[in-house]
Amino acid sequence: LRTEVVQAMDVALPSPSEQRAIASVLGALDDKIEQNRRTAQTLEKLARAIFRAWFVDFEPVKAKAASAAGFPSMPQSVFDALPTRFVDSALSAAVPAGRQGQAGIGPVPEGWEVKCLSDVFEVNPKRALRKGVIAPYLDMKNMPTAGHAPTAWTERAFGSGMRFQNGDTLVARITPCLENGKTAFVDFLAESEIGWGSTEYIVLHPREPLPPVFAYCLARTPEFRDFAIQNMSGTSGRQRVPATAMDYYHMADPPEGAAVAFASVVEPMFDSIRAGVGESRKLAEMRDYLLPRLLSGKVRVGHSALESVA
User: Fold this and answer.
1) How far apart are CA 212 and CA 266, in angstroms?
2) Which of 30, 94, 125, 250 has fewest C-beta within 10 Å?
3) What is the DSSP-derived secondary structure letter of residue 196?
4) 101 pLDDT more than 80
5) What single DSSP character describes residue 247?
6) How many CB atoms lie within 10 A of CB 183?
7) What is the four-CA torsion angle of 87, 88, 92, 93, rounded to 10 degrees?
8) Burial 91-104 (b: 16+ CB within 10 A, else e)
9) pLDDT tens digits, one per residue of 149-177
10) CA 157 to the chain's CA centroid
11) What is the C-alpha to C-alpha distance for residues 294 and 12, in angstroms, rounded to an integer?
12) From its phi and psi, is residue 111 left (phi > 0), alpha (psi between -120 and 50) or beta?
């Protein structure tokens, strides 16, 4: 349409008072969605801070070595079982030509064994999904760069791609998605449901006793991201990190007590985030459903509720 035609169109508008009422209803929905987003951001930031303190910087062990009586966020019984000294770590696998290893992860708590990530996690574990079966599909564009929850997913017949289930962590392995931080924790599927997505994902799942969220928190650390980026190869613009690079990333494997305690502290945070994300999706659907109907008058804003107009 030409601009002058559009400008000459008559548009029916609600009265100013009704416009304000509509804005109030829709604004309340947006405010709740934003509140959920901020809560999720705060909870994940806290969960990742706890992970870093316990398993990267070993702050509780340092505190105990300094004769502290306890450590915030860590159950007392777990703190009491920690060692009081560090030992030098040794890398247990030679790094082949063409791969970048770690110069070292520094001293580790006494009794904590240094292992390859692929010994502690399942890397690209097998997930059963037959070709042609309709299943949740997560494409790369909906992979989050911040936060663990994807923005959306669709239903699509399985063809060829990486398969995953609840509790898996997905890491984009191709440039620039890896550098941009596209990483997700899968908790949006139904029980026993298998989803699938791009062949450019690496799927990580911790072996017991490590909880599933351990892999997600580790994948969000700068150390892991830098290692993955340094191990990318391929032609310019299509570089990717191979899953076999996980054989050369080393970490201190915590004892069972610390792993179980981490789950008890952090998993409720992810449960709260998941509940908020689910609520926000429903609120967004409600907002998008109401907006055209409120503007057209099919639904009116009453004194205490929305009123449908036949």
Assistant:
1) 11
2) 94
3) E
4) no
5) G
6) 26
7) 160
8) eeeeeeeeebbbee
9) 998 999 999 999 999 999 999 999 999 99
10) 24
11) 12
12) left
